[in-house]
Write a structure and sequence with these properties.
By secondary structure, the chain is α/β, with parallel strands linked by helices. The chain has helices spanning about 20-35, 55-70, 85-95, 125-135, 155-165, 190-195, 225-230, 260-270, 290-295, 310-320, 340-355, 360-365, 390-400, 430-445, and strands at about 5, 10, 45-50, 75-80, 95-100, 110-115, 150, 175-180, 200-205, 235-240, 250, 255, 280-285, 300-305, 325, 330-335, 370-380, 405-410, 420-425. Strand 10 (about 235-240) and strand 11 form a beta hairpin.
């Protein structure tokens, strides 16, 4: 059984892949690797653990805390906070490990375990594999004064909000913002940060009860936010996902501003202020062709990676780039953080509105989004995708039809037995037609 995927462990909470027992075992194995690799010999390691608002996070957080403490790690619980808050607090406090209990934008019944290394970066694949390999191994348990202690850090939330506000150089006075907190981890700190930055804030879906996270709200369900922005006459709206590492926006007319459009706005702003290192943005293979064209017109280079924020960050670190992200609204700004932070992204976006004295719609208009169709083809032999000549021929024909006004991407899912067929074209009808044809070919060639 492989536990770790592209973003830690994620599964149906209390199912066979994510139980309290597994959480304890993961924590113990992580503690062992942490202690063995520690440069602070003789000093008790420290871990910070937070969670989103899912009910299942309560027992999973308790299990991870117990596992770490039983292995001799001092645990600092911070309660319900965004994933990027955990990453920040690990680096800010000099902790040895961070743990976030969250399944991000997934439905409430799911949950997950994300691990952060010293400094607040996500663990690389090799360390996750080592943790999984060592789960359940025999070990000598500490006793007496050698066991870890578990305490609650009452100042963590305040310190994280202060970090967010430190990124704001232009007060947001005069802006009216509607924020959809997805009944998740941003429900308290999100509205608070925007208010302290100077904006007038209308918060919706900010009353988590353990069951309502991501339930017809947040970045995966924008309808309520769109309607509320128009009703309130707000300047724009912000939508976060369950753990608030993403940010999507809605302009005053209710039009969606996705991650590519946000990167377009911030990229131009960063360039104008001389803050765009090497005049380059890091995107992914799913970045819209319209984003690519907009960046070319702005004289900004784009480097693409595989889908996943860890791959975006790897490329950013490799080239010392300052801005990168995904269409989903997961943006990284290395001037402030080495992980995606939805609240931080929204604050920077709001600053651009104030700084330029332009509406969000005007700022987003520099990117003309190409119609994009994504079809998931399930129950296929995804490992045979690259070896199918029939599929290769179909893709070549599609690319010939689209020319420079579109593109095709076939990608095997990293977690499910399916292949994602993505087509961008100059019209929605053409994109739909080509995507349907390619999906049919994939199903015929690789279907089980």
């Amino acid at each position: 059984m492989t536990l770790f995927g592209t973003d830690g462990i994620r599964a149906l909470a209390n199912s066979e892949n994510l139980t309290a027992e597994i959480a304890v075992d993961v924590a113990v194995a992580a503690a062992h690797i942490l202690v063995e690799s520690s440069s602070n010999k003789g000093k008790r390691p420290r871990a910070i653990i937070g969670q989103d608002s899912r009910a299942s996070g309560e027992f999973l957080e308790a299990a991870v805390s117990a596992g770490l403490a039983s292995a001799g790690i001092d645990v600092y619980r911070v309660g319900v906070l965004p994933t990027p808050a955990i990453a920040y607090l690990v680096g800010e406090s000099g902790a040895d490990l961070g743990v976030m209990i969250s399944a991000s934008h997934n439905p409430m019944p799911d949950n997950g375990i994300k691990l952060f290394s010293r400094g607040g970066g996500k663990l690389d694949d090799a360390i996750e594999a080592a943790i999984e390999k060592r789960m359940g191994e025999p070990w000598t348990r500490p006793t007496g004064r050698d066991v870890g202690r578990i305490t609650f850090d009452e100042t963590a939330s305040e310190r994280y909000v202060s970090h967010l506000l430190a990124s704001v150089s232009t007060p947001l006075a005069g802006l009216k913002i509607v924020v959809d907190c997805a009944n998740g981890a941003s429900s308290v700190v999100g509205p608070l940060a925007y208010q302290k930055a100077g904006a007038t804030v209308v918060a919706i879906h900010h009353a988590p009860d353990g069951w309502n996270i991501n339930d017809n709200c947040g970045s995966t369900h924008l309808e309520n936010l769109q309607a509320r922005v128009v009703k309130e006459g707000a300047d724009f709206g912000i939508a976060h996902d369950g753990d608030a590492d993403r940010c999507l926006a809605v302009d005053a007319q209710g039009n969606v501003i996705d991650g590519d459009a946000i990167m377009t706005i911030l990229g131009r702003g960063f360039k104008e202020r001389g803050a765009l290192n090497s005049n380059t943005i890091v995107g992914t293979v799913m970045s819209n062709l319209g984003f690519m064209h907009a960046m070319k017109e702005a004289g900004i280079d784009v480097i693409t990676t595989a889908v996943g924020d860890r791959y975006v960050l790897e490329k950013m670190l490799e080239g010392d780039f300052s801005l990168g992200g995904e269409q989903s609204g997961h943006l990284i700004m290395r001037e402030f953080a080495n992980t995606g932070d939805g609240i931080l992204t929204a604050l920077q976006l709001a600053q651009e509105v104030v700084r330029t004295k332009k509406s969000l719609a005007d700022l987003a208009s520099t990117m003309k989004r190409f119609p994009q169709v994504l079809i998931n083809v399930p129950n296929v032999a995804k490992e045979k995708l690259s070896s199918s000549q029939a599929i290769a021929d179909a893709v070549a024909q599609a690319e010939s039809t689209l020319g420079s006004e579109g593109r095709v991407l076939l990608r095997a899912s990293g977690t499910e037995p399916l292949i994602r067929v993505m087509v961008e074209a100059s019209s929605d009808n053409l994109a739909q037609e080509i995507a349907a044809s390619l999906a049919a070919t994939v199903k015929a060639e690789l279907g089980n």
